[in-house]
Write a structure and sequence with these properties.
single chain, about 120 residues, mainly alpha, about 85% helix
């Protein structure tokens, strides 16, 4: 169970690295426009805000990688950062897009369950 939990945590961390790249570097490029359903005008106007969001997603990824790096001693770190991802995903689903529930919140909840069961 521990191996599966760590795989899920790593996948969630990689997802947040991907979100970082989309928000910080590709927000107003074709890939970012497609991913977030933005017009060029809206993306250009919100580029700095999106980069800030991307940085926060990078911190979530870093925390999850840190928890993995700590090995068995990293359980509390993984639980904390998965909890942060879950809260961010629930807030995003309630305020921005229901899609965030499935992309961010549910995977975090699954990861949290696996980490706590390990």
């Amino acid at each position: 169970m521990t191996t599966l939990a760590n795989i899920v945590v790593a996948l969630i961390a990689l997802l947040h690295v991907y979100i970082l790249v989309l928000e910080m570097f590709l927000w107003d490029k074709p890939a970012g426009l497609r991913a977030f359903g933005q017009t060029q005008e809206a993306a250009t106007a919100s580029r700095v805000l999106a980069a800030n969001q991307g940085l926060y997603n990078g911190f979530l990824a870093a925390g999850l990688f840190w928890g993995l790096w700590l090995g068995p001693d990293g359980t509390a770190v993984k639980v904390f950062f998965l909890g942060c991802v879950l809260v961010a995903g629930l807030f995003g689903a309630a305020t921005a897009s229901r899609k965030i529930l499935f992309v961010q919140a549910i995977p975090a909840l699954v990861g949290l369950g696996l980490v706590l069961a390990a």
